[in-house]
Amino acid sequence: MRRTTLTALTLAAALLGTQPATTATAATAAAAAAEEGWEPAPSTPWDVAAGVRCDFPVHGEPVADEVVRRVLSTYPDGSERRVAYKGDLVIRVTNTETGAAHDADASGSAVVEYRRDGSQLWAVHGPVFVGVGAGQGTLPRGLYIVDGVYTMDISATGYKAVHLVRGTTDDLCARID
């Protein structure tokens, strides 16, 4: 599923769709994106131990990843200030104890403002994957697909304050428990 790029505010996120592209389609999309100033922003597989996000160990891996990014502005030293992200992204989230898995659509779009103090402000439209540690956000500890129109303010210490204008949260830990 494709989502429209958010052209307001400042912030970033991962995005993408539900069908893996063919090699020819991916090459064509990459060439078109490069012509418009967009560059690939691939996601990498990850693992978290039991108790960090869910009560059990979790592995995440992209099964479809066509996310691209575009630098919108930089600081005087050339470091990135605002970056837009868009594209299809599906992440397979697996309970590594039981093998239960769920393919989560994180194909939203976002503009991210990277602040000098290490904090970030995300302006998001559509579904984005969000992981929250215990006591580290306005959402309880867990892994979520947050969908809708919202901002997420991430402090320099990693605290994630999600402010939904309109949207939903999907608890991925519950889906693979």
Task: Give a brief description.
With 177 residues, the chain is mainly beta.
Descriptive notes:
The protein has 177 residues and is mainly beta. It is 10% helix and 46% strand. It has 2 helices and 12 strands, in the order H-E-E-E-E-E-E-E-E-E-E-E-E-H. The protein has helices spanning 23-35, 172-176; strands spanning 39-40, 46-48, 58-65, 68-74, 80-86, 89-95, 101-105, 109-114, 120-125, 128-132, 142-154, 160-171. The strands form 2 sheets. Strands 1, 4, 5, 8, 9, 10, 11 and 12 form an 8-stranded antiparallel beta sheet that branches. Strands 2-3-6-7 form a 4-stranded antiparallel beta sheet. The longest helix is centred in the first third of the chain and has 13 residues, at 23-35. It is globular, with a radius of gyration of 16 Å. Residues 1-25 have low confidence and may be disordered. Residues 1-26 form the signal peptide. It comes from Streptomyces violaceus (Streptomyces venezuelae). This is Secreted protein. Keywords: Signal.
Cα radius of gyration in angstroms: 16 Å
Number of helical elements? 2
Strand content: over 45%
Helix content: 10-25%
Order of helices and strands: HEEEEEEEEEEEEH
Distance between the termini: 26 Å
Ranges where pLDDT stays below 50 over 5 or more residues in a row are 1-25
Mean pLDDT: 86
Largest sheet: 8 strands, antiparallel
Shape: globular
Helix-strand makeup class: mainly beta
Number of strands: 12
Regarding quaternary structure, how should these chains be classified? single chain
